[in-house]
Amino acid sequence: MTTILVVDDEYSMRRLLDLQLSQKGYHVVTVASGKEALHTLQTVVVDLILVDGMMPEMDGFALSEAIRNGSEVPILFVTALDDRDSKLKGFEVGVDDYVTKPFDSEELHARIQAILKRAQKIQSPVSEMTRGELTLNLTARSVVVAGKRVQVTMKELELLALLMRSEGRAFSREELLAHIWGEHYEGTTRTVDTHIKTLRIKLGPPADQYIHTVWGIGYKFEVVS
């Protein structure tokens, strides 16, 4: 059974999500704070985490960043923060999708299904790809640069894999957005730029040899010695 961890400081919201998700057949674990969530993740294996953005002590952004330091488990932000900067910040710290409150329960479920489907697809057997000093393994959800493992989010992994599979091809931002986030994603192409920027930072200086900006178009992967 799929296990979903709900992190929200409001009891009524935890209760609502627990009820709605349980009715859809998920096993739901609820906690009231970021610290409780981190403690729970040490003992409970979860398939998806729903995180509220505004919580005391450790907010959703800090929690997501802490989770990403050691895990690639999918994270879905469910928050009242609906401004553009908050959404961009969420993607920068590694969340996979972003839903604003109040939300439609069926839309939320559809987004959950889409995230879980992508995660399952990534876990399916796929051959390892090595380009230069960069190795990506979708089965292990791992990226290794010059022998050192780099922690990446699921979206970053998908984005890098797509570029690597089509080495030398220039993708427009719109193409990358459609491939990775889906045609019905409501965000802007800035989402792609943000993820590329984060990937480059995580890969370090070698990123300049692999991920290239194609002015007027978008991005491509090509090994340049």
Automatic annotation (TrEMBL):
Example GO biological process: regulation of DNA-templated transcription
PROSITE patterns: OMPR_PHOB, RESPONSE_REGULATORY
The name this protein goes by in its record: DNA-binding response regulator
UniProt source species: Chryseomicrobium excrementi
Presence of keyword Endoplasmic reticulum: no
Sites of 4-aspartylphosphate modification: 52
GO molecular function, one term: transcription cis-regulatory region binding
Entry keyword set: DNA-binding, Phosphoprotein, Transcription, Transcription regulation, Two-component regulatory system
Main location: cytoplasm
Organism classification: Bacteria, Bacillati, Bacillota, Bacilli, Bacillales
